[in-house]
Design goal:
39% of the residues lie in helices and 22% in strands. It has a domain at 35-162: Nuclear Transport Factor 2, Chain: A (Roll), CATH 3.10.450. The chain is of the alpha+beta class and 230 residues long. β4 and β5 form a beta hairpin. Strands 1-5-4-3-2 form a five-stranded mixed sheet.
């Protein structure tokens, strides 16, 4: 009787030991990825790995892109997929390098570098074969392990210059020729007006006329009289 009851106890003890050993050998359950890791995986899988079907795993349905030139949202995963497809069409060999990545609370900042070769879809064909190498910063707001908002800042000037675009400044403004300042005394008389002489000119003319009248009344002086005067 003792042997009958001891057998189940031995089996139970052996089973417990086996379970304990299996539990020790099994890897610990994977902890939920932090916000920084989610952003890193999103960049590697979607943009570098071309796994567009993975976008809903990282981007919330209520996602809004606040980047300059983006229409008001919400945009959702479909919008992100469309953006990625446009990127791949213009730069078929697109590759992103994560240079810096840090977070605070629910915000993640990523400093990245993108490189690729422009195709005919980039810039209307004139950029085909040009090498693109620019940097940018993306800011993400996370919620429940997904991206719900983003802001992208890109060096667009360098991007377009590398693509072959020329920066043309605004046309120079045509300055009107300066008008000569005409004083009141030098102002030209209007048609039909009689110019009025200056007071000084009038006195000089009067004195000249008076002197001429006096000179005409005096008798001419002979040569001998002139010699006497001398």
């Amino acid at each position: 009787m003792r042997h009958v009851t001891a057998l189940p106890l031995a089996l139970t003890f052996a089973l417990l030991c086996a379970l304990s050993a299996a539990a020790q050998d099994a890897p610990p359950p994977e902890a939920p990825a932090g916000n920084e890791e989610v952003v890193r995986r999103f960049t590697e899988e979607v943009y570098n790995g071309r796994q567009l079907d993975a976008i809903p795993r990282y981007v919330a349905d209520s996602f809004v892109d606040h980047s300059p030139g983006t229409p008001p949202g919400p945009h959702g995963p479909d919008f992100v997929r469309s953006q990625a497809e446009q990127t791949f069409a213009g730069l078929p060999d697109t590759h992103f390098d994560v240079l810096h990545l840090f977070s605070e609370d629910d915000m993640v900042a990523m400093h990245w570098r993108v490189r690729g070769t422009a195709s005919a879809a980039f810039g209307g064909g004139g950029s085909t074969g040009r090498e693109i190498d620019v940097e940018g910063i993306s800011l993400f707001r996370m919620e429940d392990g997904k991206i719900v908002e983003s802001w992208d800042i890109v060096d667009r000037l360098t991007l377009f210059q590398q693509a072959g675009f020329r920066v043309v400044g605004p046309p120079a403004a045509v300055q009107p020729a300066p008008e000569e300042e005409v004083g009141e005394e030098e102002a030209a008389p209007e048609e039909g007006d009689t110019p009025t002489p200056r007071p000084e000119e009038g006195r000089v003319e009067e004195e000249t006329e008076a002197a001429g009248d006096d000179a005409s009344d005096e008798p001419p002086v002979s040569g001998d009289e002139r010699d006497d005067v001398r």
